[in-house]
Amino acid sequence: MVKEKNIIELHNITVSFDGETVLDDLDLSIRDGEFVTFLGASGCGKTTTLRVIAGFISPDHGDVFFDGVRINDLPPHKRQVNTIFQRYALFPHLNVFDNVAFGLKVAGMKKEQIKEKVEEMLELVNMKAFAQRKIHNLSGGQQQRVAIARALVNNPRVLLLDEPLAALDYKLRKDMQNELKRIQRQTGITFIFVTHDQEEALSMSDTVVVMNEGKIQQIGSPTKIYNEPENAFVADFIGESNIIDGVMLDDFKVRLDGRAFKCLDKGFAVNEPVDVVIRPEDVDIVPLEKGQLTGEVSSITFKGDYYEMIVDVCGFKWMVQATDEQFVGTKVGLVVEPDAIHIMKKSKYSGMFGDYSTFSTEMDEMEEEARLEEERLEEEAQEEQGNE
Amino acid sequence: MNKRAGTFSRGLLNTPYVVWSLIFILVPLFFVVYYSFFDLEGGGFTLEYIKVFFSDPMYIKAFGISLLYSVIATAISLVIAYPFAYFLSRKKPSSQSIQMVLIMLPMWMNMLVRTYSWANILELNGILNKFFSLFGAEPVMMLGTGGAVILGMVYNYLPYMILPIYTGMSKIEQPLLEAAEDLGCNGFQKLRRVIMPLSLSGVVSGIIMVFVPSISTFYISQKMSGGKVVLIGDIIETQIKEYWADGGLNRGAAMSLVLMVIILFCTFVMNRFTDEDEGGLLV
């Protein structure tokens, strides 16, 4: 289905709002028929990129190409793309049928033809019985389907989806993921999907574009992104990762925590400092004396099909997922196979992620903020006392 | 027990409102109806006073002019307010509230004062004529014309047009407008297919809120035309003030009643446009 030809190309796109850079010299090519996902936390620039493609934002620098033609100055209504908006943005004054028919009416299509196409599209999203319903009488999932139909009926070359599943509950989201995937295969339309949910991105896409701070961190297939993250940010953002400082001793040989490990990576300079990624499910817990590394279990959480443990190895907190229960305080050995080790070059994200003292950077920041706030309040109280 | 206590206290809270509407709305309304049909001297039921409204050419003319002027004033207000409200609603929230205050600011002053000021501005030796004379123009008597009366109406009631339209406009979320563009609408199509239908109820409220006080005003016409333009409100005022004992109260009441019925009918017709089920009427 995916063709070799690029349908969309972004060259050196820079966008800033009020002096703050949102997209920083971004380059990206999207092939015709591809299911591409922009993945990143809020504020990473993924939605902005989508809006540049849709034409709602014109970049400060750089060019947008569609089918090889520069479309920087083409207004949104003339672009061959349609968008599914975050909160669907269905027209409240129109019923389901008229919402779906909207684009065709604007294009001046004949009435009978509109009826035929709209009904066909409502069939595709399983909403035919609701054609005469008012929008505010629909559930979130139904609104979602109407939004899909409203965009697809115009036969766009590219469909842009801005976190379309964010408002749905977990199970419905799973179903809609499958449905979107099915529709994409059936129609062959290029989908550009924006999400902050890494699981969603991995399970739906042909290609994942991981973004942070207005830059692309990595582009690749879901397996490549997961197995061979390019830097500490990607490793941490996609799934759970222990990221440990290491030194490349030689090809296929890395030293971490004072011990040499075999690995499958090469092409680094001798004694080059690197980031070592080890996924929690790839660490085996063994009796103390058999371990390559040793540590103490500092917490354990039952996750249903596995236990999630935090193991303190010389002050660095590893996350380990295993099916056997351990107890807090137990000293255990850890074993890591060569194929479980992935070596990354040092980046500006080195040292920021991959230690499981806390799970999120937000938690760290919140704690820091709380501490500062407490200090401030104390100071104020003291000042007040002084004034009295 | 709890429930009854709740109903009771709610009833208690309602009391001032009920008393208020009884004394200041229902009772006066009753008297208007009563004096329209019954003689002040106790002469019994009569349709004489209602008939006057439809038979005396002076009244018919005054009503015609009132209708014409208030329709023109409403139309001008709408033309000014609609684009204004749209662009205001698309600005960032901080500048929206500043501009809203600027619109409301004149309303903090008494309407009489504001109308007097306009009369001063338009006078033969008023500011406007003085300004024009700088360029060698002869002074023009602007006060006392129909245009001056309409200007007075528009100036005084424009905020009542802007406010409901602006409220309606600010409820139109930006993504809806983007969706319209995304689905192929150019500027005009976006206006016709999305903005207009979604702001219609605000427009209807605005029209009613400008039209009703305009058609029944008497003060603006007196001050802005110096008595040259006689509106139906002026006639009602004169009747009640000057010919109180001479059946003037009855005629005034009857005219008010007829005017009220006409306004109610207009309002009813206007509101039909915004009925939930007929929302698609204009689309």
In words, what does this structure look like?
- The complex is a heterodimer of chains A (388) and B (283).
- The N and C termini of chain A lie far apart (77 Å).
- Chain A is an alpha+beta fold and 388 residues long.
- The mean pLDDT of chain A is 91.
- Chain A has helices at residues 46-54, 96-106, 111-124, 140-152, 170-187, 198-204, 222-227, 232-237, 361-387; strands at 6-17, 20-31, 35-39, 61-66, 69-70, 81-84, 158-162, 190-195, 207-212, 215-220, 242-250, 253-256, 259-262, 272-278, 283-286, 293-302, 307-313, 316-322, 331-336, 341-345.
- In chain A, the strands form four sheets. In chain A, strands 6-7-8-3-9-10 form a six-stranded mixed beta sheet, sandwiched between helices. In chain A, strands 13-12-11-14-20 form a five-stranded antiparallel beta sheet.
- With 283 residues, chain B is mostly helical.
- Chain B has two domains: 1-37; 49-282, MetI-like fold.
- Helix content of chain B is 77%, strand content 0%.
- Chain B has helices at residues 2-37, 48-55, 57-89, 93-104, 111-122, 127-133, 146-170, 174-182, 187-216, 219-225, 232-242, 244-272.
- At the A-B interface, strand 6 and helix 2 of A face helix 8 and helix 9 of B.
Estimate the global geometry of chain A from the Cα principal axes: globular
Please tell me the total number of domains of chain A. 2
Mean pLDDT of chain A: 91
Number of helices of chain B: 12
Cα-atom radius of gyration of chain A: 25 Å
Major interchain interface with per-chain residue totals: A-B, 27 and 20 residues
N-to-C CA distance of chain B: 52 Å
> Largest sheet of chain A, if any?
6 strands, mixed
Brief sketch in words of this structure:
The complex is a heterodimer of chains A (388) and B (283). Chain A has 388 residues and is α+β, with helices and mostly antiparallel strands.
Topology of this structure?
The complex is a heterodimer of chains A (388) and B (283).
Chain A lengths: L5 E12 L2 E12 L3 E5 L6 H9 L6 E6 L2 E2 L10 E4 L11 H11 L4 H14 L15 H13 L5 E5 L7 H18 L2 E6 L2 H7 L2 E6 L2 E6 L1 H6 L4 H6 L4 E9 L2 E4 L2 E4 L9 E7 L4 E4 L6 E10 L4 E7 L2 E7 L8 E6 L4 E5 L15 H27 L1
Parallel strand pairs in A: 3-8, 3-9, 6-7, 7-8
Antiparallel strand pairs in A: 1-2, 1-4, 4-5, 9-10, 11-12, 11-14, 12-13, 14-20, 15-19, 16-17, 16-19, 17-18
Chain B lengths: L1 H36 L10 H8 L1 H33 L3 H12 L6 H12 L4 H7 L12 H25 L3 H9 L4 H30 L2 H7 L6 H11 L1 H29 L11
Helix pairs in contact in B: 1-12, 2-12, 3-7, 3-9, 5-10, 7-9, 7-10, 8-9, 9-12, 11-12
